[in-house]
């Protein structure tokens, strides 16, 4: 009898638990602002939330327990927030279509915020119905749902403040203009409403605006960021970091406080260190194991030598290598190709050169990452398009701020115009491709190409392009206040550290009539041995770092079963290459550090096991290097980092406007948004890729 009663009780518990599931997924918010004929108006969703909240409020009104009264008050507060937010968001919903680029591109920051608020309402509706169906079951946890309801209320209140800011932006610009036409500052915007509570965006509701399938990933990244900050600032070890990471998983409020305080207090060096995790040995192995197999994957080093290019009117002009900020330096360019081709540097093949080439610039907020961290999709592109890709490893801020990276991109493009055969192409078609900061650099490079009157690329593909490098208020830019991948403070620090400083003047003694100079807008300084930061006698072959040697500890195989050598080469002159293992021509005397060749036959289980062991060893040593030295290889920690770290656990309640105290010059080469319309009309066909919740969406509109 007792067993029968227990069994019956368990069935009731399981049935009650299943009834708590919400039948409708709240993943999709209203992505369009117009009401579709034949469907209920969007207001019905808000009314449904109010009705469900009222039901729960009536139920818990008579509950005398502390959690019961908190639930009652939480639902009453939610109803008040819905009543406040609905008329505000409804107005934005109606005017948002007037700010689309055209009828075929229904997207702008106003639409995005309407979608975000709708997602919050759906999240609240799901939560309220879970409580409504589960409040009478034995498994109902009042303490858990109290925090969930209160977090949802704080979230809706903060979004209401954001919508108030959007109404201010609407009054600052004429219909159709996403950026203010008058001189309005971000400080002025944030002074017109209450301070936005960013903590609610990174706690229990983290990723509410995204599909459920990606929320777990975003939560994992956030936990990693919070845990990494412990190791970075506190000299932690692997075990302590795993423990603190577990705390951030269990305690969403602790995680939110840590992430927001990191965003507000951490230096750009922390941002670089965290993003440089994609450059770690464990991540370097991912493309070799997960992405398409390529026959050529070389890091070429372009020596800083003058490049002579022919203009469209038949004149020759000399482009000198960049010297601004950090002096003369080699420039890395990664060549990726699915096939070896005739003439390709360091390769022997009878396959004719491809007709096209992709000139690629990686993203990373101007301060982090490289061609290696973007290698995964570059391999896939090279395979599907069957053409070589040249990806440039430009110098990074804050050590090398604007215009250093831009000058290097332009210099590399001019080098490419003279060396198509070494890249394995005829150069019949050139396509620019870049994401984030790389997209900005390519757009700016296009302006320099037009001013220099040299050959243009045949097309440009820009993804998530920040075309206005300044925080001039726009609707989509407010999205970074809640972005899990690019927190507001990170974005501000990247902008501050890339805005640059005044470059040194060129040496007039080296000026010639056919050399581009800063005076004619091309921004390349003259070479002066006495200039600060310029190294004399640049070595043609430099030592490769230990991390570089570890980089190529994986093997690949060609479709025909033969091994493919992945070779790191350095160019002393455009045609000089150090070779190894019979890659064409006679071997050249070398040091062991000059060339790296390796890899893994991914089809053999024994080698996979060996690779897995190597990954774990690399991860352990990588973590040790982080925690022992308080830095990431290639990234120096600021002197006051430890002082900053001690403040990360403090609850800092300050306005986001505190991060706006910096100015950015209105320079078209830094912000192509300011470029002259006549220049923009001469751009080749451009394809812009953005997404609904991209903070740079309005830049691309």
Commentary on this structure:
- The protein is an alpha/beta fold and 701 residues long.
- It folds into two domains: 18-184, no CATH class; 283-611, Rossmann fold (3-Layer(aba) Sandwich).
- It contains 21 helices and nine strands.
- The chain has helices spanning 2-19, 43-60, 66-95, 109-134, 142-172, 186-190, 212-234, 238-250, 252-265, 268-275, 281-284, 286-290, 375-385, 404-418, 420-423, 437-452, 488-498, 546-551, 605-629, 641-645, 677-680, and strands at residues 296-302, 307-310, 316-319, 331-337, 354-361, 389-393, 425-435, 459-463, 686-689.
- The strands form two sheets. Strands 1-4-6-5-7-8-9 form a seven-stranded mixed β-sheet. It has a two-stranded antiparallel ribbon with strand order 2-3.
- The longest helix has 31 residues, at 142-172.
- 46% of the residues are buried.
Write down the overall mean pLDDT: 75
Total discrete domains: 2
* H-E order: HHHHHHHHHHHHEEEEEHEHHEHEHHHHHE
Number of strands: 9
Query: Which outline best applies?
Result: elongated
Q: Tell me the CATH architecture of the largest domain.
A: 3-Layer(aba) Sandwich
What is the topology, as strand order, of the major beta sheet? Answer: 1-4-6-5-7-8-9
Instruction: Could you tell me the CATH topology label of the largest domain.
Output: Rossmann fold
For the sheet with most strands, the description reads: 7 strands, mixed
């Amino acid at each position: 009898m007792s067993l029968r009663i227990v069994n019956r009780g368990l069935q009731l518990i399981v049935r009650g638990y299943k009834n708590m599931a919400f039948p409708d997924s709240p993943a999709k918010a209203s992505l369009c602002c117009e009401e579709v004929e034949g469907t209920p108006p969007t207001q019905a969703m808000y009314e449904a939330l109010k009705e469900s909240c009222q039901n729960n409020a009536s139920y818990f009104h008579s509950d005398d327990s502390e959690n019961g009264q908190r639930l009652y008050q939480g639902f009453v507060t939610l109803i008040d927030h819905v009543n406040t937010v609905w008329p505000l968001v409804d107005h934005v919903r109606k005017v948002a279509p007037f700010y689309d680029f055209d009828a075929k591109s229904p997207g702008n920051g106003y639409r995005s915020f309407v979608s975000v608020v709708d997602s919050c309402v759906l999240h609240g509706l799901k939560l309220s119905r879970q409580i409504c169906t589960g409040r009478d079951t034995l498994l109902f946890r009042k303490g858990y749902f109290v925090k969930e309801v209160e977090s949802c209320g704080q979230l809706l209140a903060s979004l209401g403040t954001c919508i108030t800011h959007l109404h201010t932006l609407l009054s600052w610009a004429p219909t159709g203009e996403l950026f203010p036409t008058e001189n309005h500052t971000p400080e002025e915007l944030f002074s017109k409403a209450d301070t936005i509570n960013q903590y609610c965006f990174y706690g229990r509701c983290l990723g509410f605006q995204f599909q459920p399938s990606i929320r777990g990933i975003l939560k994992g990244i956030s936990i990693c960021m919070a845990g990494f900050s412990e190791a970075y600032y506190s000299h932690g070890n692997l075990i302590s970091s795993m423990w603190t990471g577990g705390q951030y998983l269990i305690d969403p409020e602790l995680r939110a406080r840590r992430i927001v305080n990191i965003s507000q207090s951490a230096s750009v060096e922390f941002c670089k260190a965290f993003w440089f995790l994609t450059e770690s040995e464990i991540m370097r192995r991912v493309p070799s194991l997960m992405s398409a197999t390529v026959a050529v994957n070389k890091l070429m080093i372009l020596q800083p030598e003058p490049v002579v290019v022919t203009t469209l009117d038949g004149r020759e002009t000399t482009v000198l290598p960049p010297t601004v900020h950090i002096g003369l330096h080699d420039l890395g360019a990664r060549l990726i190709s699915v096939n070896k081709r005739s003439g390709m540097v360091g390769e022997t093949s009878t396959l004719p050169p491809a007709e096209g080439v992709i000139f690629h610039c990686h993203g990373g907020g101007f301060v982090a990452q490289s061609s290696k961290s973007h290698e995964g999709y570059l391999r896939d592109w090279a395979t599907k398009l069957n053409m070589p890709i040249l990806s440039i490893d430009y110098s990074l801020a804050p050590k090398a701020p604007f215009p250093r990276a831009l000058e290097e991109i332009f210099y590399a493009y001019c080098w490419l115009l003279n060396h198509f055969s070494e890249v394995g192409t005829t150069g019949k078609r050139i396509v620019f491709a870049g994401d984030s900061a790389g997209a900005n650099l390519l757009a700016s490079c296009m302006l320099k190409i037009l001013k220099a009157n040299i050959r243009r690329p045949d097309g440009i593909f820009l993804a998530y392009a920040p075309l206005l490098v300044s925080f001039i208020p726009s609707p989509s830019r407010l999205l970074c206040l809640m972005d899990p991948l690019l927190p507001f403070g990170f974005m501000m620090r990247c902008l501050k550290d890339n805005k640059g400083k005044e470059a040194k003047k060129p040496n007039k003694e080296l000026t010639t009539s056919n050399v581009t100079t800063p005076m004619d807008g091309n921004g390349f300084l003259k070479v002066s041995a006495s200039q600060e930061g310029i190294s004399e006698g640049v070595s043609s072959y430099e030592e490769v770092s230990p991390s570089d040697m570890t980089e190529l500890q994986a093997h690949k195989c060609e479709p025909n079963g033969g091994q493919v050598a992945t070779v790191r080469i350095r160019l002393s002159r455009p045609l000089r290459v150090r070779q190894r293992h019979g890659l064409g021509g006679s071997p050249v005397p070398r040091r062991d550090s000059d060339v790296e060749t390796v890899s893994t036959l991914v089809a053999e289980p024994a080698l996979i096991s060996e690779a897995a062991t190597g990954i774990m060893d690399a991860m352990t040593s990588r973590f040790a290097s982080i925690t022992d030295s308080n830095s990431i290889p290639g990234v120096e920690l600021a002197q006051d980092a430890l002082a900053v770290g001690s403040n990360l656990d403090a609850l800092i309640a300050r306005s986001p406007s505190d991060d706006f105290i910096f100015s950015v010059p209105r320079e078209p080469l830094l912000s192509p948004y300011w470029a002259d319309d006549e220049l923009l009309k001469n751009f080749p066909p451009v394809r812009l890729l953005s997404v609904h919740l991209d903070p740079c969406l309005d830049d691309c509109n």
